[in-house]
Amino acid sequence: MKTRSTVQVTLTAVFAALYAVGVAFLAPISFQAFQVRIADALLPLSILLGWPVVVGVTIGAFVANFFGPLGPVDMIGGAFANFIATLVAWKIAGGRNRITALAGVAAEIVVVTLIVGTYLSYLLALPIEVGLLGVFLGSVIAIGVLGSVLLFALSNSRVTSILHSGVLVEAETKT
Hints:
The protein is mainly alpha-helical. The protein has a single domain (4-28, 38-165), classed as Arp2/3 complex 21 kDa subunit ARPC3, CATH 1.10.1760. It has helices at 4-25, 45-49, 51-66, 71-93, 98-123, 128-154, 157-163, 167-173. Helix 1 packs across helix 8 (167-173), helix 3 (51-66) runs antiparallel to helix 4 and helix 4 packs antiparallel against helix 5. It is globular. The two termini are 20 Å apart.
């Protein structure tokens, strides 16, 4: 029998791996001033699944940025941005409805843009406006468009019932 903690640890590992591999595989578009981190499409899933996504994409960002060209500031800053963005979105939306989900997704875009755009402008010696604009545009595509599509597809009642069957319902109600 699966326990709540076993499922949550497994999901966390899956999201960490998916995020890290997604960034590494698409490195040419993941580490520039104008970047589209396709792996960021996973961030809105925190609204549906909570802690496993919050922790998973945080670890995934740290691991992915470890192998990236921007060093410790990006490792820590990217992980911090993902943690705050997904936590805020989860607390705003918490699986309530599509309007709150969109508000959560918008919050993720803002948080990632402000944190990552600020330190990228410093690391790449760019005007702050360029760093913010580059991350914002990429975040709108990855988080806003792709992430929302993924979130709403997985929020379908049939898929949700599978995701929340048994142990996951118990896991979410106890968090």
